[in-house]
Amino acid sequence: MLDLIAKLGRSIINIIAMLGRSGLMLFGALIGKPQFSKQFPLLVKQFYFVGVQSLSIIIVSGLFIGMVLALQGYFILTTFGAEASLGMLVALALLRELGPVVAGLLFAGRAGSALTAEIGLMKATEQLSSMEMMAVDPLRRIIAPRFWAGFFCMPFLTAIFVAVGILGGVLVGVDWKGIDAGFFWSSIQSNVDWWHDLGNCFIKSFAFAIASTWIALFNGYDCMPTSEGISRATTNTVVYSSLVILGLDFILTALMFSN
Amino acid sequence: MSRKVEITVGFFMVLVICSVLFLCFRVTDPTSFASHNSYRVYAVFDNIGGLKVRSPIKIGGVVIGRVSNISLKSENGNTYKPYVTMDLDAQYDRIPSSSSLSIKTSGLLGEQFIDINFGLDQSIEHELDSLDSDTTTTTNNSNNKPAYLEDGYVISNTKPAMVIEDLIGQFLYSVGGSSAKDNKQDTNESKE
């Protein structure tokens, strides 16, 4: 019994210590004198790895999600004779929920796991400690550009995802099912609010970007420097970021759309 | 390698900018975030039915503003009444203040909106009065009512919303009432 309580306490202390380490890591990476000329090329390189290489999965899944949403919406709305508001359905569903969440999940799976594996392997092959030997701060050199790349790329990818999804909805609704294009666009334009829908989409997306990039970087930085440790860290990244994105989404939705 | 990376990242950024512009100008209404000049008018209703914040305000079917707030307010110690705040587009500033408001429903089950029915234009009334005699104009000026709707004006000439349950209730009541009366008359006749 006493053993059990001791175990519980130890695990809680471990969790708190982990949170502390992750906070310190982010603090060390982001707080400091900015050196744009030195960091900008690193950032561009990370934009390539994090953003550009996630582009194909984002575009393809956005297109198919928009198309499937339009098709299912069409089947349901025709039973009420309300297929003219299909555009509103697709656009609002993508902007409010599906865009940020699905782009976030895909990003965590595609870019987050890659970041974790890369940093984990750097740690296992002692590249991070050799950088410290050369008086290069690995937090500033390795973690910071990856964090900023993730922070900016995910909202960018969300914007592309939503835009492609709406175009996929147009493809199914207007070109295949023959809804009038004017009805389709006017139902979108009159119902999508500039701040309430579009702005909140990007707020959500930035929140998910911070959460999932932070989790990915920390899991890589904190992993056991063995091959098994790297594999566990990569799995943890995908699982934790997905759970945190879904949980945060509920909280943000409740705050944003409750009134 | 580095040059290729820069070019692909550049393409990525162009794609991002295109999709953000698409979302801003094609998906949302581009006129909606060019902030309109608007003026604020209030109205007291008996019943607002299903009116909501951001419901449209229309004249002859054209949207000229939106409901910005709905609350209950008691006027000079009277009972609480729904008090609707409306933002009207500043370019429509010549709406006669004697206009009446009614809450209507678009379609049978559609959303509810406020319809403005034009009243008599009081400036024309003034001119007619001044042609008539000089005494009436002085009385009209003394009651100090603006001829057109303006910021802060409270409209009290309103018609309550039609609540369909009430209508059905009244209908059923009237049908039931008349049949009961008929029965009474029948019994009276049978007594006789």
UniProtKB/TrEMBL annotation, chain A:
Subcellular location field: Cell inner membrane
Pfam families to which the protein is assigned, alphabetical: MlaE
Family: Belongs to the MlaE permease family.
Lineage, broadest ranks: Bacteria, Pseudomonadati, Pseudomonadota, Gammaproteobacteria, Orbales
Keyword Cell inner membrane included in the entry's annotation: yes
Molecular function in Gene Ontology: phospholipid transporter activity
Subunit structure of this chain's protein: The complex is composed of two ATP-binding proteins (MlaF), two transmembrane proteins (MlaE), two cytoplasmic solute-binding proteins (MlaB) and six periplasmic solute-binding proteins (MlaD).
Record key words, sorted: Cell inner membrane, Cell membrane, Membrane, Transmembrane, Transmembrane helix, Transport
Name of this chain's protein: Intermembrane phospholipid transport system permease protein MlaE
Membrane topology term: Multi-pass membrane protein
Species of the source: Gilliamella apicola
From TrEMBL, chain B:
Pfam families (UniProt xref): MlaD (PF02470)
InterPro entries per record: ABC_MlaD (IPR030970), Mce/MlaD (IPR003399), MlaD_Phospholipid_Transporter (IPR052336)
Limits of the Mce/MlaD domain: 38-119
Regions that span the bilayer: 7-28
The protein's name in its UniProt record: Outer membrane lipid asymmetry maintenance protein MlaD
Organism for this UniProt entry: Gilliamella apicola
Keywords assigned by UniProt, alphabetized: Membrane, Transmembrane, Transmembrane helix
Keyword Membrane: yes
Gene from which this protein is expressed: mlaD
NCBIfam families: OM_asym_MlaD
Gene Ontology MF terms: phospholipid binding; phospholipid transporter activity
PANTHER family membership: INTERMEMBRANE PHOSPHOLIPID TRANSPORT SYSTEM BINDING PROTEIN MLAD, INTERMEMBRANE PHOSPHOLIPID TRANSPORT SYSTEM BINDING PROTEIN MLAD-RELATED
